[in-house]
Design goal:
The structure holds two protein chains of two kinds. Chain A is α/β, with parallel strands linked by helices. Chain A has ten helices and 13 strands. Chain B is mainly alpha-helical. Chain B has helices spanning 2-5, 8-42, 47-62, 65-88, 117-150, 153-161, 166-196, 208-216, 232-261, 268-271; strands at residues 97-98, 101-102. The chains are: A alpha/beta, B mainly alpha.
Chain lengths: 240, 272
């Protein structure tokens, strides 16, 4: 029965729109370890800024969405091979990633990256710096030729600073702020870095229709100010 | 404390123990089957089958586990979808590989895009079992192949002298006697398999190590009702106890099996 309905739907939409018909459920891929962007709450469900944002976007684009968590390391390969349909995981839009996948328009302003350390007088150029693998921060440190230690999860980069393995961690300020606020030992360095061009949703390059739907939904949230309200609620950085 | 240990997240953690145990229970026999097939193929009379067996054993044993789990599984998944695509959507004109993207028609997706999340999880679990079985099957094949060689040649000759066919001699004489030679190697593999389960997360299955890391990680009061510092040490300590207890239990069981198998056999196990 289901197949018949799907077939009729596909026929009704015409061959050109068959792609759209295929997206009966949009699977939203996220990391689930990067508060306040996305994390698992006490009930074990995906929560955070991107959860609320994503649910609202899906509602506006009239899509049914389902949340999936995936390791950060393999988040892009699993998107392009079709295990889920979007990446919504605080992923900054970069030229390098844009060669492999497409991005929607940004839904957050470029967030300055900050250094979190045990003492204020760490000289970043001579220090051992921690960053998460495959992030703009890791690429930035590597490009500068400073000493970099990479970790698979954001949590481990902070732990590395706490136990002295690294002198400072470089990450999005919005991620570090709640950590700094609740830990008396950790302080921000005065220096920040402006890298990255804002965060967008990652979508397969062949999936232009889905990209347009989300682009329009993001635009409508920008226009009516609901995106800014979410950014303020979760303290994601500057509003639009 | 009781409240903390019964959050939805913790139930995810407890459930993952079940996942790991079920995985072991299903994978071990499957891998043994793969191993038995590989070993029999490697000593086949028929040259192509022998080649197939030998190539399977040597290639899979040579590829690092992590590479296998990162790339092979995606390839396997795409392979299934490719076959289904060819069968279900013969009229499809678009290219399947568009640049980096792998695009098959929606009817060919595995599981179907609109299937509930649990179906995706079961499918992921199935892929995990298959991958573990292929990897550990190759090692088991090598062990079993060695064990088959270790059964004294005289036994087979005697069987043939009694008029048994090759097949009868294989099933009634060789196979029952080879287990005792295979057991030390197989028990090693079993231990390795227990310890390899954390690779599950690479396949998207949430295993005990994933949950221990997630639960033990620092929680801020803004994002959780139960804020705490870095507790990963305690969670990993619990895992250590679990793994040690489980391997100890395995040792006890395996040594019992060894004793039983060595009854009436002129092997080292029986004299020890």
């Amino acid at each position: 029965m289901k197949r018949i309905i799907l077939t009729i739907a596909a026929l009704a939409l015409g061959a050109g729109l068959a792609h759209a018909g295929s997206h009966s459920v949009i699977r939203m891929g996220t990391e689930g370890a990067y508060p306040p962007w996305n994390f698992l709450n006490d009930a074990g469900e995906v929560d955070g800024f991107e959860r609320e944002l994503g649910d609202e976007l899906c509602q506006r684009a009239e899509l049914t969405c389902e949340w999936v968590t995936n390791d950060w390391d393999s988040i892009i390969p699993n998107l392009v091979s079709g295990n889920y349909d979007t990446i919504i995981a605080g992923m900054s839009i970069t030229a390098e990633r844009d060669q492999v996948i497409d991005f929607t328009q940004n839904y957050s302003q470029p967030d300055p990256s900050a250094y979190l350390a045990m003492s204020e007088d760490v000289d970043v150029e001579g220090a051992v710096l921690a960053a998460q693998t495959n992030t703009i921060q890791a690429a930035f440190i590597a490009e500068k030729g400073w000493t970099l230690v990479e970790f698979a999860t954001p949590e481990e980069t902070i732990a590395a600073v706490r136990n002295g393995e690294a002198d400072a961690v470089l990450a999005d300020q919005s991620y570090l702020t709640p950590i700094e606020a609740e830990d008396a030992d950790l302080v921000f360095l005065a220096r920040t870095e402006l890298i990255g061009g804002g965060v967008g949703m990652g979508i397969r390059e062949s999936d232009t229709e889905l990209k347009e739907k989300f682009n329009m939904a993001i635009q409508s949230m920008k226009d009516d100010g609901s995106l800014n309200a979410l950014i303020e609620k979760w303290e994601i950085g500057e509003p639009f | 404390m009781a409240c903390y240990l019964t959050t939805g997240k913790h139930f995810g953690f407890y459930w993952s123990f079940v996942t790991v145990l079920v995985l072991l229970a299903v994978t071990a026999p499957t891998a043994l089957l793969f191993g038995f097939g590989g070993a029999s193929a490697a000593r086949s009379q028929f040259l192509p089958i022998r080649w197939f067996g030998t190539i399977y054993i040597s290639i899979v044993r040579g590829v690092p586990d992590i590479a296998f789990f990162l790339f092979f599984v995606i390839a396997l998944d795409q392979g299934f979808e490719f076959l289904r695509h060819q069968y279900l959507c013969p009229d499809w004109t678009d290219r399947i590989w568009q640049g980096n993207d792998f695009v098959v028609c929606s009817a060919a997706k595995l599981p179907l895009g609109n299937a509930p999340q649990w179906v995706h999880e079961v499918y992921g679990f199935f892929l995990a079992v298959l991958t573990f079985a292929i990897v550990f099957g190759a090692f088991a094949a090598n062990v079993l192949h060695g064990a088959m060689q270790a059964v004294p040649r005289g036994q087979i000759e005697t069987a043939e002298a009694y008029g048994m066919t090759r097949r009868q001699a294989f099933w009634h004489v060789l196979v029952p006697q080879m287990w005792i030679y295979a057991l030390p190697g197989l028990s090693n593999l079993w231990m390795l398999l227990i310890k390899a389960t954390p690779l599950l997360f690479l396949l998207g299955v949430e295993d005990i190590v994933y949950w221990a890391r997630e639960l033990g990680g620092t929680k801020q009061a803004r994002f959780s009702d139960y804020p705490h510092g870095d507790w990963r040490l305690w969670y990993f300590l619990a895992l250590l106890v679990f793994y040690l207890a489980f391997t100890r239990l395995s040792e006890v069981v395996l040594s019992r099996i060894t004793r039983r198998l060595s009854h009436g056999q002129a092997t080292i196990g029986a004299t020890a």
